[in-house]
Amino acid sequence: MLVLQDALNALGFSTRTLDGIFGANTRSALTSFQRNNGLVADGVCGCQTWTRLVNEAVGIGRTSSVIDP
User: How far is the C-alpha of 63 from the C-alpha of 12, rounded, in Å?
Assistant: First the structure.
């Protein structure tokens, strides 16, 4: 969950915190990300959403914990 929140924050979709909880703020950020990327905005981080999110976030370096292969 922290990776999801961190990636969303790094891409400009604020979850307001890195707490590892899929609460209302994380769902809102995820839904906004989905809308902005032409995905079904259902607030569920399925395969298509996860793939798009990871492809955009990997290695961007905006935060110290963004995933980097």
Answer: 11
| Predicted structure pTM score | 0.85
Residue 57, pLDDT score: 87
Alpha-carbon distance of 25 to 12, in angstroms, equals: 13
* pLDDT value for 62: 60
| Torsion angle of the four alpha carbons 36, 53, 10, 62, in this order, in degrees rounded to the nearest 10 | -130
**Distance in angstroms between the alpha carbons of the first and the last residue of the chain:** 18
For the chain, the structural domain boundaries read 2-60
CATH code reported for the domain at 2-60: 1.10.101
What interhelical angle do 24-36 and 2-10 show, nearest 10?
A: 50
